[in-house]
Structures are given as structure tokens and as C-alpha cells.
Amino acid sequence: MQIQRSYCAPFSTYRNGTPMAPCGAIANSMFNDTIDLFYSRNSSVIQVPLLKTGNSWWTDKNVKFRNPESYNLSSAFAAGTARPPYWQKPAYLLDEEDERNSGYLNDDFIVWMRVSAFATFRNLYRRVRRVRHFAEGLPAGNYTFHISYNFPVTKFKGRKLVILSTVVWCGGSNPFLGIAYLVSGTAATLTGFVITGIHLKLRKKKTYFQK
């Protein structure tokens, strides 16, 4: 397994020369809290079924990210590499229930590696599995979060928020990107008309002077 040190520094290798897999500061800081959601229905508490796959882009899952070619994923990662220093477990154990969602093909890892352009960002963590009581989404009622705090943010005065949102084919419910695209597109179109008008006007004047 080859490590591009120029892209991964300073999280590329340990002092004894063992490469980190995956390498780099972004991978090392991967979000690793565990969040479970529970629904209080009458006198019972029901755990909301959440999907941990299907949350990443198809191109990332099938084109950009690849696991080492090996019949055994654990042996491929254990052979001469070690987990990043801030990780609690190696890459091949990111999903112990489904090996197809482990290693570099883990959805949580892929979503985290798509870097945001801003310091404040949202990442898709889970989707509700629409079965039984949740066939139409989350019914009205009381909910409780159980969160295993593993990702420290107090050192750099950061904050973590859990946001319940509706995601459609074009993304989340946040209208910022849609508004930004509309404003930018409208401004570009108007600018194009203005430049075209100026060009035609100057061309007419140039033809007049040439006569």
C-alpha cells in the first residue's frame, strides 16, 4: 500500500515508519460519535431504525473510493499499516456487521472525506428506514437521542448539533445553495445581455466611422 506523503503530512507515517491507513489530517479527524434515536410510543420506547448505507454519492462509492484488492479486508489493512492516531479502531472494522460497508468504502468515511468549503458544515449521518411505525417518516411524539461522545470539539471551541431534516433527490431542505445558484445565474444572464448590447452598439459606431 503506497502513501502519498506530500498529501498526507503530517499524518502519513508513525515514528517507526508504519504508514497510516487512511492517511491525512481530514481522515484522522473523522467524526466517530454514535447517535441512536428512540421514539416514545404510549408506554414503550422504540428505537428508530436508521440506515447507515446509501448516504454517500454514487460516484464516490463506486468510482472514487476503493478498498485494497484482497480476499480478506482485515489482512489487507493489517499488513504493514496502522489506523490513524485519533481512530478508536482500524478501517476494516468501521462496520463490523457489513464488510461491504467497511474500509475505504464505508459511507461515514466517504461522507466525511467530502470536505466542505466553510467552517460550519452539515454531513448526512443517517436516514430513517421507512418501516412499521416509520413508514411515513417520523410520527409526531417524543424522541430521545442516545449519543456516545467520542469526537471532542471543546479543545478548539467547536460545536456539534444534531439536525433532523428532510432530504430529497436534490439535497437537503436548506435553500441557501438554491438561492445562491438562482442569484448567480440571474446576474450572469443580465451581465451577458449588457455585454452583448454594448458590443452591438460599439460595432455600429465603428461601422459608421469607417464610412
TrEMBL record:
GO biological process, any: phospholipid translocation
One cellular component term from this protein's GO annotations in UniProt: endoplasmic reticulum
Pfam family, any one: CDC50
TM helices/strands, residue ranges: 179-202
Alphabetized InterPro entries for the sequence: CDC50/LEM3_fam
Top-level taxon in the UniProt lineage: Eukaryota
Cellular compartment(s): Membrane
Keyword tags: Glycoprotein, Membrane, Transmembrane, Transmembrane helix
Family to which the UniProt record says this protein belongs: Belongs to the CDC50/LEM3 family.
This protein's name: Cell cycle control protein 50C
Organism for this UniProt entry: Panurus biarmicus
Taxonomic path: Eukaryota, Metazoa, Chordata, Craniata, Vertebrata
